[in-house]
Structures are given as C-alpha cells and as structure tokens.
Amino acid sequence: MKISFSEQDERFRQEVADWLAGNLCGEFEPLRFRGGPGDEHMYPQQRKAWERKLAEGRWTCVGWAPEHGGRGLSISQQVIFHEEYARAGGPGRMGHIGEGLAGPTIAAFGNDEQRRRLLPGIVSGTQFWCQGYSEPSAGSDLANVKTRASLEHGRWVINGQKVWTSLAHESDWCFVIARTEPGSVGHRGLSFLLVPMAQAGISVRPIEQMTGTSEFNEVFFDNASTDAANLIGQPGDGWKIAMALLGFERGVSTLGQQMQFANELNEVIAIAKANGAARDPLLRQRLAEAWCGLRIMRYNSLRMLSGAQDGALRKEATIYKLFWSSWHANLGKLAMDVLGTDAELLEAAPYQLTRLQSLYLFSRADTLYGGSNEIQRNIIAERALGMPKEPRLRP
C-alpha cells in the first residue's frame, strides 16, 4: 500500500488542478459540486457537455490502456486525478457507468470488434450507459434474475423488467443480465447483453424518491432486441462477467467518492463551528469519529488498489461497500443533528431541499443499493473469511 506520492506525481497533481481551474468555470461554473448522489437529476445536458470538455482535455478514461483510448495512468496518478476532481467541485459524472463499469468490462471480456465499436463513444463523452441488473425480485440477489432473452434470426429478443436503474432516461445503452437458457436457475444460464435504449420495445418509468427527485427508473423490455454481436462473452457467461464488473465498481474512482464525502463532512464541520454545535461534546466526538472513519476508508481503498486491476474482488474490497454506506448514512444523521431545528425548515416555495437535507434523505438508501448491507455481510463471511454458507431452504 502506498500512502505518499512522488515529485512526479505531485507535478501531475498540479497539472490536474490547473486544468480544472481553467475549465470548470464560465458556462460550467454552475456545475461545481452538483450532480452527486441525491442530486443526479440536476443539469444533465450541461453535464453531458462537460463530459465532452473532459474528453477534449483527455481526462476521460484516464486509467484505461492507450489501445482502448485511455491515458494508461498509474494507480497513483488515477488516485490524484479523482481526488483533485472532487476537490475542485467537479460535477457528478454522467459517463461514470460507461467509464467505470461498461467500458472495463467490454475491454476485458469483449472481442476486438466490440472494443472498436463501443469504447470510443465512452472515451469521447458522447455515449452514456446504464446498468440493467436489479429486478423487483432480484435486487441484491442477482442469481434470481427473471428477465429472459432468446436468440431469434440473429437478434436477442428480451422480455422482463429492471428496476433502480440510475439515469436510464439519459442513457444510450444498457448492459443487461438476462436468462438465456430456458429452465435455468441461480447463476447458471445467464448472459451479459448490451442493449440500445432508443427502441420501441423499451420503456423507462421514473421512480420518485422522498427527495422529490427521479434519477432512478424502472425499465421494461417488451420484445426489445439487440444484435447477436452485442453479447459479451458466450451464452451462460453472464454471472462470471457480472461478478467481474462488480470488482471494477470497487475500483480507483472510490477515492474520488471519498473526496466528495470529505466535502460534505467539511460543510458539516463549518456549520458546527458557526452555529455553536461544535461546543457540544457529544457532537464534537461524532465529528471526530466521522473524520477518523474517512481516513480508515482511504487507507483501506489504497490497500484494495495495491493489486491487479482486473475486476477480481480482493478480500479487502469485500468490506468497502459495507463500510462507506454505513459511514455515509451516519454522516446524514450527524448533519441533521448539527443543523438542529434548521434541519426541519425550508425557506420558501418551491421548498427545494438544501444539500444537507438531500444528503440525509438520500443516504437512507446507501445501505441498500449496490448490494444491501445484509448481503455484504454474507459476502464477507463466505467469500472473504471462508465461513460455512448460509443454509438454503429446499422448495
């Protein structure tokens, strides 16, 4: 694990900071610190334009190999980029799912034709992706997927429903886990399909959350289709590929996520100092615990990133989702307690939530999406610690 940076790395840090200072301004100034979790509905078109601006500066896909259109930056330089991006208030990335999930998966498991056809749109910031995993009866239990697909006349015909699909209404493509082997159960018979969103067989229905926003969606497939060439790997490889993708999800961008958390914590601390809440010994202790928790998160991430970045889920990575989601949910509670009675007030119509109010409400879901905390504890026990698997009831 490396917790310091070389002189060359620090020069690179300055390069990143200078570029952001010179470009995250003017028409992009309103995007600063916007578009993160709970705020993803804001400025979607402007944030897509920002993706194209990043691409002009070659700041998309910085960790990808040069043959795939990336810069091939070292892990330390990728960490620096994501940290400086968040420090500068860089907006939530509209291209995150393509760059962090779909792209690395296509690069690792796709064929040459698929890489040539699909990766450039991600690098250029012109093609956007969403994730078709969760279903009404298969959220964290991905092996219970019911969406099915059959190969007919050179095309996969898809029927089923996905849910909690982030930014599906803004996406050009969806990667879909579907059951392609009739009668199969569990993780067998699943395939990994890339599906264009702009077709009559797909309908997207927004899900309004208690924040009043609708970045999540239900997606319905009614004889939707995709070309046979859009299957990644072989039929039945879906489970293996899906698990590798979840490994990419725990990748280097987690350091950027932590800088966003640091921005939120700093805001809470500033308010505590201003309104006197920092004088309360219990609140002061909770602020200190939050600060310590963020450092622990960083060091574990650096340890997690010390190995090969091939999508394999290292033991250190199994605790990450459980740790950050619990920490962030607690930060939301802490923010409300620091605000006191102001946490329950809005200034005037149209009664837009403040950033910290949105943080509190949205972070209630942190322990559910991306794998519920209960599922994460099972993963830690069974895969990381080698404990006996949970008993399964026979039908």
Automatic annotation (TrEMBL):
<dbReference type="GO" id="GO:0016937">
    <property type="term" value="F:short-chain fatty acyl-CoA dehydrogenase activity"/>
</dbReference>
<dbReference type="InterPro" id="IPR009075">
    <property type="entry name" value="AcylCo_DH/oxidase_C"/>
</dbReference>
<dbReference type="Pfam" id="PF00441">
    <property type="entry name" value="Acyl-CoA_dh_1"/>
</dbReference>
<dbReference type="InterPro" id="IPR006091">
    <property type="entry name" value="Acyl-CoA_Oxase/DH_mid-dom"/>
</dbReference>
<dbReference type="Pfam" id="PF02771">
    <property type="entry name" value="Acyl-CoA_dh_N"/>
</dbReference>
<dbReference type="InterPro" id="IPR052161">
    <property type="entry name" value="Mycobact_Acyl-CoA_DH"/>
</dbReference>
<protein>
    <submittedName>
        <fullName>Short-chain specific acyl-CoA dehydrogenase, mitochondrial</fullName>
        <ecNumber>1.3.8.1</ecNumber>
    </submittedName>
</protein>
<feature type="domain" description="Acyl-CoA dehydrogenase/oxidase N-terminal">
    <location>
        <begin position="7"/>
        <end position="125"/>
    </location>
</feature>
<dbReference type="InterPro" id="IPR036250">
    <property type="entry name" value="AcylCo_DH-like_C"/>
</dbReference>
<comment type="similarity">
    <text>Belongs to the acyl-CoA dehydrogenase family.</text>
</comment>
<dbReference type="GO" id="GO:0050660">
    <property type="term" value="F:flavin adenine dinucleotide binding"/>
</dbReference>
<dbReference type="GO" id="GO:0005886">
    <property type="term" value="C:plasma membrane"/>
</dbReference>
<keyword id="KW-0560">Oxidoreductase</keyword>
<dbReference type="InterPro" id="IPR013786">
    <property type="entry name" value="AcylCoA_DH/ox_N"/>
</dbReference>
<feature type="domain" description="Acyl-CoA oxidase/dehydrogenase middle">
    <location>
        <begin position="130"/>
        <end position="223"/>
    </location>
</feature>
<dbReference type="Pfam" id="PF02770">
    <property type="entry name" value="Acyl-CoA_dh_M"/>
</dbReference>
<dbReference type="InterPro" id="IPR046373">
    <property type="entry name" value="Acyl-CoA_Oxase/DH_mid-dom_sf"/>
</dbReference>
<dbReference type="InterPro" id="IPR009100">
    <property type="entry name" value="AcylCoA_DH/oxidase_NM_dom_sf"/>
</dbReference>
<keyword id="KW-0274">FAD</keyword>
<dbReference type="InterPro" id="IPR037069">
    <property type="entry name" value="AcylCoA_DH/ox_N_sf"/>
</dbReference>
<feature type="domain" description="Acyl-CoA dehydrogenase/oxidase C-terminal">
    <location>
        <begin position="236"/>
        <end position="384"/>
    </location>
</feature>
<keyword id="KW-0285">Flavoprotein</keyword>
